[in-house]
Amino acid sequence: MTEDAVVDDKDLLTIGAFAAKARLSAKALRLYDRLGLLTPAHVDEASGYRYYRADQAEPARLVALLRQLDMPLARIAEVVAAADGDQAARLLAGYWADVEARVAGQRTLAEYLRGRLSGRNSEMYGKFEVETVDVPARVVITETRHTLAGELPAWIGASLGRLEAASRECGGITAAPFVVYHSEVSMESDGPAEACVPIADEAAARAWAEGHGRAWETRVRAEPAQRLAYTRITKAQVAHPQILAAFEAVEQWIAAQGLEQSGPCREVYFADWEAAGAEDPSCDVAFPVK
């Protein structure tokens, strides 16, 4: 008896017959079974032969089509298991929105790299006006985390939200929140990054951090007075990789002015992020200099 032999149950199809009905290969069906995406209706305990119901053909074709979209297996399983077509469509729409966002970022990165490779650096950097500002000494309440670039925006929003809430018990916020990058944050490097909120009452902040801050690695530290070289960018330009050109423009300006970097780079968030539009100035990209 072969795997394609006819079984007694007329409602079951052998893998060969089902593969023909679903317009897929038996090899693909075995793979879907191993991945947990499409389980046979019956597996013969003695022979190991797989059998399917005719109504499994549509889910099988759906799995094959979703795999052509490079959808991760876990998300394919969610779509296939969706309670109804509308829910499945929403799951697919959510996945495709993520794909388009990723491709848009990659397109921007490719354009940025073409500019660098073709020697048009000065043209790109000329879009950014760099200035300096003297910042007084201050006390900040902070959270530090090792994070990759893909996780960074969500972490920044969450951490600054927690710190701003804590600041209400520490005399209030005295200046714009900022994020310090103690080492590179990219798709391969995880920093760390440090979210910082300047506060008025150091003693209250230390008491708060002692009682509540352990879960988020919260601490209080003093920031020295320093001069910052910075360029102001829009909300849209904050996104990675657009922001890379802003950082490099400031670095180039510092070198051209004969200055030296005296500390790690940072992003200063002075605008209401939720209310700001894509083209509204929202962030300063800055380096301490001497």
Q: What does this molecule look like?
A:
It is a single chain. This protein is an alpha+beta fold and about 290 residues long. It has 3 domains: about 70 residues, Multidrug-efflux Transporter Regulator, Chain: A, Domain 2 (Orthogonal Bundle); about 30 residues; about 160 residues, Multidrug-efflux Transporter 1 Regulator Bmrr, Chain A. About 40% of the residues lie in helices and about 20% in strands. The strands form 2 sheets. Strands 4-9-11-10-6-7-5-8 form an 8-stranded antiparallel β-sheet. A 3-stranded antiparallel β-sheet has the order 1-3-2. A hairpin with a 6-residue loop joins strand 2 and strand 3. The N and C termini lie far apart (about 85 Å). The relative contact order is 0.10. The N terminus is likely disordered.
Q: Short description, anyone?
A:
The chain is of the alpha+beta class and 290 residues long. The protein is built from ten helices and eleven strands.
Shape: elongated
Q: Calculate the terminal CA-CA distance, rounded to whole Å.
A: 83 Å
CATH topology of the largest domain, anyone?
Answer: Multidrug-efflux Transporter 1 Regulator Bmrr, Chain A
Which CATH architecture of the largest domain is right?
Alpha-Beta Barrel
How many structural domains in the coordinates?
3
CATH class of the largest domain: Alpha Beta
CATH homologous superfamily caption of the largest domain:
Regulatory factor, effector binding domain
SS field, number of helical segments? 10
Q: What assembly state would you assign to the polypeptide chains in this entry?
A: single chain
Strand proportion, as a percent range, falls in 15-25%
| Biggest sheet, spatial arrangement of strands | 4-9-11-10-6-7-5-8
Helix fraction, binned, reads 40-55%
> Unreliable stretches, pLDDT < 50, 5 or more residues?
1-7
